[in-house]
Amino acid sequence: MKGNTTANRQAPASPASSSSDDTSPRKRRKTAATATDRKRNNASKPKRKKIPTYYRRKEEMDRLEEEKKQLEATVKDLEDRADILRPREALQRRQHTNRVLREVLHAQRRAFAGAASIVAHHFREKSTGPFDTPTKLSKDPVKRRAALLEMREQRLSCAYEFMVEMLRHMDVTLDFSEQKRFTAINGDICSERFEIVPLPEARSVKRVFDALEAFVSNMEISMSEVDGDITVRENDEPQLSINAPVAQHRFVTTIANIVQMDTNNAAFAEYRPPGPGVEEIGFSINDPIDEDELYPYKPETRVRQDVTVIIMVSKQFDPDGNPLIVFSRWWSLCLRKSHIHVPKFVSDRIRNGLESVSASMLAAAERADAGHAR
Asked: Where is this chain compositionally biased, Basic residues type (predicted)?
């Protein structure tokens, strides 16, 4: 027993057992050293201070508030720029619209100018008035009267239709006058005029009409007084009246003691009193006679003047509904081309003379109701 015990104590330890005893303490020392180093490192680093949630949110709110202010400032700047640019843009739009409108108006004016040129050329090529039926009078008194009465019927009908169309789109309560002078392609010297003259002082269509007829009945006297050139009546036929609804005016005028001028016109007049569905109206018409066997033209020694005059006196109404007497007139003068030399100042004097006589006739119409109360 003792021997075994001694043997056991003296026996060497096994390798495995020896290795286990040697390794385990080293690991423990290494682990302890690592932990000690980690603690030293942690102790050497400053500890991170934890920010409370309240402060983080406040900082975020402050940052957002600052961004909001910047955005508001940007918006305000853009609005200010828009306020500056908006009128400029509106002005640019107006300028563009005005340019477009000007182009349209210019195109319309060109179209009107072209149409006016066509019309002007037409009248220069063939100057025609509202009456296109030539009149020929024989020496026989019965045939002459029949021809003049037929002429009267046709002229009155055409004159009424013509004046209605001339006035259709016009404001007859306002003065209007349009005149043109031209030399026709065939060499005739022509002049035309259309006018509308309200007569606010007039009270009666009939009185104005009667004043005009009195003026026409003494036309040769009026022409001599106004123009200063002597005008002589060659015919002695009765003047216009109820029994003689047609009159003839055969005049010879000496112009500036240089040229003699023939005028041969038929005169018609008609007054239509007011009635149911009938407007009060007065017509005075003068139209040239183309051929007259009793009073022929003398182209060898005289120049020929053809004058057409249409006068209409009617009752209209102003914008307030008050009655207004309106004087409307269209006339045409044609100084026929002749082999007789006519100085320019003579032809101008003839045209100006008709304008002067027309003005004198209008003055007579304006004086017709002088002194009469409404």
From this structure: 41-51
Supply the Cα-derived Rg of the chain in whole angstroms: 57
> Quick one: 216 exposed, middle or buried, by C-beta within 10 A (0-12, 13-18, 19+)?
buried
C-alpha 230 chain-centroid distance: 46
Is the pTM higher than 0.90? The answer reads no
Query: In the block, which residue shows the tokens 């508030």?
Result: 65
Q: Residue 286: CB partners within 8 Å, gap ≥ 6?
A: 216, 249, 265, 266, 267, 268, 307, 308, 309
Instruction: Please enumerate in sequence order all residues whose Cβ is within 8 A of that of 23, keeping only pairs 6 or more positions apart, or say none.
Output: none
* CA neighbor of 352 nearest in space, from 231, 193, 212: 193
φ/ψ of 288, rounded to 5, equals -70, 150
Work out the angle at residue 152's Cα, subtended by the Cα atoms of residues 151 and 154, and round it to the nearest 5 degrees: 65
Alpha-carbon span 185 to 272, nearest angstrom: 40
User: HEC string of 14-73?
Assistant: CHHHHHHHHHHHHHHHHHHHHHHHHHHHHHHCCCCCCCCHHHHHHHHHHHHHHHHHHHHH
Q: Which of 355, 345, 356, 351 is nearest to 258 (CA)?
A: 345
The answer to whether 162 touches 130, Cβ cutoff 8 Å, is yes
Number of Cβ within a 10 Å radius of residue 55: 9
CB 298 within 8 A of CB 272: no
Residues 6+ apart with CB under 8 A from 179: 191, 192, 193, 194
- DSSP 3-state of 81: helix
The residue assigned the tokens 């057992």 is 17
**Which residue has tokens 């509904």?**
321
Q: What is the pLDDT of residues 327-359, one digit of tens each?
A: 999 999 999 999 899 999 999 999 999 999 999
Residues of the chain predicted below pLDDT 50: 1-23, 373
